[in-house]
Amino acid sequence: MRMRVFLTGLIAAATMLVAPPLSAAAPAPAMSGLTDAIAGRLALADAVAASKWASGAAIDDPAREQVVLDTVSQLALDRDLDPGYVRGVFRDQIEASKTVQRRLFAQWRLPGQTAPPATPDLGPVRAAINELNVAIVDELAASRDIVTTLRCPPELTVSTAQTAADAGFDPLHVAALVQAGASVCTVSTGSS
User: Fold this and answer.
1) What is the largest CA-CA distance in the chain?
2) For the segment 60-90, what is each residue's pLDDT rounded down to a tens digit?
3) 88, part of any domain
4) Residue 136 is part of which domain span?
5) CATH of residue 48
6) d(CA 118, CA 151)
7) Per-residue pLDDT tens over the stretch 4-16
8) Residue 60 in contact with residue 49, Cβ under 8 Å?
9) Is residue 157 domain-resident?
10) Start and end of every Chorismate mutase domain (predicted)?
């Protein structure tokens, strides 16, 4: 299963490098609502990193992560989704965000580099993240007929590539977007 997810990520990255952007007349990819919500959440990782840098807070925040996982589990139940599945998807969201934060911290430690100005108050950013968490769970519910089929990996790849292009993501954020989608598709081929 992990090998397939890894290959899906590689395909997504390769697709972004070689595929021309979809024309404005082309229909949106099937999972674009989901990948757009995931990308929106991931884009906030920069603000989270800057705030944590300003306050001296650690990147890892197990208490906050638990609140997020508990909240999305309840959202999953409310939408008749498997809470374990949704928690897995959100573990990937959290880890992808921390990937971006760690890379930014490393960059800001380099000679001549500085972090952008930020407030140590994460309240407004967390409120935006919470809204996107709801949107992601809603999109998972809307995609329930795709995520368990063999259609999911290619649909997710196309949607991820289009979302990354539309967002103008740099290589760090593209890689994190692929990481954030690692558990979306639940289809299994029976071997890894």
Assistant:
1) 51
2) 999 999 999 999 999 999 999 999 999 999 9
3) yes
4) 31-180
5) 1.20.59.10
6) 42
7) 444 344 444 444 4
8) no
9) yes
10) 1-105
